[in-house]
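cron nightly-structures :: item 1 of 1
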Amino acid sequence: MSDTRNVESINNRGTTTNDLESQQPITATDVRAVEPRIRTIYVIEEEDRDLVEDPAGGALVLCAFCGLVFSWIPIVGLVTFCVNSGAPRRSLRYNFAVMALTISMAVIFFNLIFWFFY
């Protein structure tokens, strides 16, 4: 590579030269690889994971918990979710309802698989 530039450069003895005639062409030994110093910082804002207070809660939380316990009977889990799905998200009642729905759907799925291959 025979690139000469009109900038101040450092020759092999460590002194600087400014005029074009005294500059040597840049060779592969003069070029050093430099790691880039740009770093990317990712900021992930995490939501507040605390439970929300349910204004209509009270006895309905107990109802949702009982539905969760008996959600191995699929119709109970589905009804529990339908009754408690109107609760505010991140409330204890809503979490119980989603868990009851998940368990009842898993029971339905495994029953279908079992009776299909039986």
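cron nightly-structures :: done
The CA atoms of residues 24 and 104 lie 79 Å apart.
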